[in-house]
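Suppose a colleague, Dr. K., hands you the sequence of a protein chain of 282 amino acids and asks what its three-dimensional shape might be. Before reaching for any lab equipment, you can write down a predicted structure in token form. Begin with the sequence itself:
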Amino acid sequence: MRLLLWCGLFLAAPLITAAADTPGLADKATAPKRIISLAPHITELLYAIGAGGQVVGVSAYSDYPPAAADLPEVANYAGVNFEAILALNPDLVIAWKTGNVAADISRLQQFGIKVAFSDPLLISDIATELRALGQLTGHSEQAETAARRFEQQLAELRQTYKTKTRLPVFFSMGTAPLSSVANQAWPAQAIRLCAANNIIADSKGDYPQPGIEQVLQAQPAVIIQATAGGKPADTRFWQAYPVIPAVTLNQFITVDADLLYRTSPRTLQGIKQLCQGLDRFR
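The predicted structure, expressed as tokens, is then:
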């Protein structure tokens, strides 16, 4: 669960916002030269708009693009390394508003470090974040290009799947305990986009823990699981329930967690992977 958290699975409301003393629109001359990213999705967004050369420190699991993995690691799910951040002398830190520890961010600001925040809520918000980061980093033109490309690809996906036959599915985040997704959880949004009906869509909260009885009653036609790198998922738990159509028909889909969960332009690759997997069973 901690790895999924740091990959950007859990979402919250605001898009990129800035602290009162953070610069807004920047050109090449005034753009920050030393940026620290405190979440993997932020790192990917920065590289996507051409600002990778300004990034001097990153969080744990910032492994894409490969160049990011060579940068100093200054934070993880537990908190930030203040000494490491101060040693890098950043002129801007971009934090994940609900993924980073609030007290840590407050302390960074007390040190006089300028902080901006990122927190995409909807899949479509990624384009907005790209544009906002472009303004912050002096890469507005590149960001606009990346945002339009993302919007076009998202629109094409929506057009392709808006009339597809809908399948009842269950997204299994884990089995001990049994956990899933609903409402505005990132995978739940992907399920809707791919023309599938989440059998627990009406659950309270984005990450419910349904009882197996609920799954048995709903009779999903497909069970979806996400793994690191899209490696084959362990389906042994489900073999005890052959009355579920997905189990009887061996209709399981495994998707790449890094692609599907992380709120960056690459999430469309994960969503396409999910949609194409579902197409096999329509």
